[in-house]
Amino acid sequence: MDFGPFLLLALMEGLVTAAVLALTAVGLALVFGVMRVVNVAHGEFFMLGAVAAWFVTTWIPGPPAVGFIAALVLCPLLVASVAALADTLVLKRLNYDPDATIVATIGLLYILQQAALSLYGPDARPVEAPFTLRVQFPWFGYSGYKLAVIVAAALLLAGVWLLLARTKIGLVMRATQIDRETARAFGINVDRVYAGVFALGAGLAAVAAVLIVPIQQAHYLMGHDPLLLSFIVVIIGGLGSLRGTLVAALLIGLSDGVISVFFSPTLAKILATLFVALVLVFRPQGLMGRRAA
Amino acid sequence: MLQVRELEAGYGAVTVLRGLTLQAAPGEVLCVMGRNGAGKSTLMKAIMGLVPANAGEITLDGSRVSGLPAHEVPRLGIGYVPQGRRLFGDLTVAENIEIGLMTRRHGAATRERVLDLFPRLRERMGQVSRTLSGGEQQMLAIARALCIEPKVLLLDEPTEGLQPSMIALIRETVVALKATGVATVLVEQRVDAVLSVADRVAFVDHGRVAEVVPAAGMTHNSPEFLKYVGI
Q1: Where along chain B do its domains lie?
Q2: A188 to B99: CB separation less than 8 angstroms, yes or no
Q3: Which terminus of chain A is less hemmed in, N or C, by CB atoms within 10 Å?
Q4: Helical segments of chain A, H only
């Protein structure tokens, strides 16, 4: 294969990575932005989404598409409820203290991981894609499902943007992010906003996992990479800046695809981590973050 | 009628208010004066439920305000203009006003009435509120609180750092609200601002109301100013 088509293939692989990463990282960025909580358990919500997708698609009979669509709706809702419960039972009681919530979410990480190990087992299991379509390019054929993942992620991200920018729910979330005390003085139930944002963040990770699980298989330890990459993306993009998170997800996803195809996946991770170190040294507020006043 | 009885409140182990009692009637402007640290801002926050009351009681028209979750207090009709304005700085003027309107589900009619008081804000609805001038920011902070259509308005040093024309505008607004039957509690440090709008002046000292004086008989040289405020 010539260099041109080879690069195109690499970029498309990178776009799939970027799409799923963007969804996961936006969830993490929302939680940090609004609640100032560093959610170390974010990757486990991703894993929970994938594992739940396996259960749902296994239990629901009929063609794979039916089970998959059911999983796409049910799993994020299930994971979001687990997150809302964790927020109310644990984080709220810690008064959202930054240090305490880090330790608490580390605890949550192990609880969710071990629960998955107990109930789901140590095996990696595949979920069948809802459709098998091969898109034939002049130089190579490509999975139609992977292209659908890119489109679905783009639509979901547009939805999140609309929610934040155009609805009253989004306005309440942004006001709470800026000044939670003043938000309370204007009738905003901050506890409810926090539970909702934590649920939304986890739900986004879960939906990303459902989308990826026909490509990657569900496994109880699969949450590590998304967590690490999400943190990388959120730090590069600028803590609390959703636009920065999106740009960074594209950057990291695409470079991951290209470098993995031409060199090696390990080199891709090394370079991404090096990039984070450079950003932290030379531009600690991130690419689009605002410097703290 | 806003009534505060024997209120004790503070931050953690530090008690700031030690049995504070005062009341503000509809159509009245009650000025609260006192030295730094006397507890003026803490009083405002305690009324809003942002600082928990450890003892005592706050009531509005006989129903209990103290002990409610903080987000339910403004829904009873208590508008708050915090010290330093505390706008939602990254939001536009229109969005800040929208937050105010959402508090008690008021609509366009309320928004128009409030914007008629501050025509300058109407011209800047799409502007990010952080980029407004100091005076405009204060107008917006007051407008946001008025969107609640409050029975009681708490103003915490609204004239701080403003130029004279702005101070005059804020005074006019307070006088106009008084005519509509709003009870205003105004924390203020400047004697002429107090004398020009106040009906009564409550002097706060060490977390208690030391004295309440009708403003009518007061002048710049009244001994209470020197005794409780040091000016």
Answers
A1: 89-149
A2: yes
A3: C
A4: 3-35, 42-59, 64-86, 98-120, 144-166, 168-178, 180-185, 190-216, 224-237, 242-262, 265-282
